[in-house]
Amino acid sequence: MVQSSLFAAYLAATRPIERGAVPKDVQPRPSGALIWAICASSDHRYAMDTLSRRLSDDGEAVTIVSTLASPADPDVPTTPNTRHATRAFLQHWQPQLILWVGGSLDPAVVFEISKSDAPAVMIEADGANIAKTPGRHVPGLLRQCLQTFAEILTIDDADTPKLLKAGANPDTLHAIGVLDDAVAPPPCDDTVRSSLTTRLSARPMWLAADIPLAEVATIAAAYRHAARRAHKTLLIVTPRHGDDTKAMEDAFRCDGLSIACRHHGEQPKEATQIYVVDTDEGLGLWCRLSSITYLGGSLSDGISPDPFVPALVGSAIVTGPHQEAHQTHFDRLMNAGAIKQVSTSDKLGGAIEDLLATDLAAQQALAAWDVTSQGADATNDLMSVIYTYLDQVNT
Predict the structure, then answer these.
(1) Does 2 have pLDDT greater than 90?
(2) Which domains does the chain have, with CATH numbers?
C-alpha cells in the first residue's frame, strides 16, 4: 500500500480503544495452511464454517481462524481494531491467505494486512457497506484500502459501479453470488420421530421454539386464537431455559390450557393442547414434526434460533420483528417471501391460523428451502480462488 500523507496522518491520529489483542494463553498456531477470515457477522462466520467443511471434504488440510468484532462466543477470537493488535495477530497466526467477509473496512487493519506477505480477498463486497468505511473522506484512503485486495468478490454485478467509483481495481472485481452459509441440518432420532408421527399425525401441529418466560402469555393467546378454526391443534413448546419449565407449565395451566410435559414422561393425549418439551432431543425433531415454527424471542428480546434450522427441514417460519441474532439469514428468507413476519404479539395467533388453514405454509417452506440450498456454486468459486493462492504460497 502506497500511503498518502493524509492517509498516514489519519492512521496516526486514530486512537480507538484497542480490542482483539492476542491473549497470553492463546493456542499455538496449527501446522499447515491457515486462513484468517475477518467476518462482519455471525452469519458470515457460519459461511466460513461451511467453507471449512467443504475444504475438509476435499481433503484439504486448511485451518480457518474466523474473527468477529464482538463475538458472543468466548471461543471465537475478536477481530483486532488497531495496527498494533493486527500486527500481533498476524505474527502469531501467520496466515497464508486473508478473507475479508462482508461489512465495511477498517483502514488500520487493512494497512497492516497490506504490509504482510499474505494475499487478501474480499468476499460479499457490498458498495453500501464499503461506503461506511471510517475515514472514507480522507483523499485516497478508500482507494488504497480497496487496492490492497487481490480479489474483490461481490454477490452480483449491481455493486460493481459503486466499488469502481470508490477506487477498486476493475481487474479484481468478480460476481460469484451468496456464499453457502447454511447450518448443518439439525439432527433427529428417526425412531422417536416415527413413533411420535404415528401418535400425532392426525393433528395439525405448530412449534414455539426456544420460548422465554416473557413470551408465555403471547404463546397462550396465539394458541387460543389459532385453535378456534383448527380445534385439534397441538402446540409444542420448547423453553429457552430448562430452569423455566416449571414456571411455564404453571402459567399455561393457570390460563386453563391442558398440557403434557415430556420431561415427566407424559405423552400428549387427544385433549392435550400444549406439549412442553425440555428434553435433549433438540429442535431437529420438533421442527420436523411441526408444519409451522414460531421462533421464540423474536417478539421480545431478539434472541431467537437461527431461521435456517426450521427452513432446512421444511417447517414454515413465523417471526416477530426482533431478529438481531441472525439478521442476515432473516433478511435472505424475508426477501424470498419465505417467512411470515408479525409486527406485534397480538397478531401471532392470526398468522398461525392463516398458515394452518391454507397451503401458504407449504409455499413458504419451499421458498425457504430454495434459499438455504443456494450458495453452493459461490462457495465452489471461492474454493477455486483459495486453491489458486495457496498453490502460489506452496510453490
Answers:
(1) no
(2) 5-22+32-181+375-394 (3.40.50.11720), 190-373 (3.40.50.2000)
Helix (H) or strand (E) holding 85: helix 83-93
Q: Which is nearest to 57 in space by CA: 174, 190, 189, 184?
A: 184
State the Cα–Cα distance between residues 183 and 282, nearest whole angstrom: 15
pTM above 0.70, yes or no: no
268, 234 in Cβ contact below 8 A?
A: yes
Q: What is the DSSP secondary structure assignment for residue 186, as one 8-state letter? A: P
Query: Three-state secondary structure along 92-153?
Result: HHCCCEEEEECCCCCHHHHHHHHHCCCCEEEEEECHHHHCCCCCCCCCCHHHHHHCCCCEEE
Which residue's entry shows cell 469502481?
164
Q: What angle do CA 31, 37, 39 make, to 5 degrees?
A: 150
Report DSSP state, residue 391. Answer: H
> What nine digits make up the cell of 192?
422417536
What does the alpha-carbon distance between residue 194 and residue 269 come to, in Å, rounded to a whole number? Answer: 17
Distances in Å between the alpha carbon of 240 and those of 165, 274, 294, 315? 47, 16, 13, 19
Distance in angstroms (rounded) separating the CA atoms of residues 35 and 93: 9
- CA-to-CA distance for 366 and 135, rounded, in angstroms? 44
Angle (CA) 290 369 291, round 5°: 15
Kindly tell me the number of DSSP H helices and DSSP E strands found in the chain.
16, 13
**What is each CA distance from 33 to 43, 51, 54, 120, 215, in whole angstroms?**
24, 14, 15, 15, 47
What pLDDT does residue 1 have?
A: 55
Residue 71 backbone phi and psi in degrees, to 5: -70, 140
At residue 329, the pLDDT reads: 86
Q: Which of 74, 60, 53, 63 is nearest to 99 (CA)?
A: 63
pLDDT band at 395 (very low <50, low <70, confident <90, very high): low
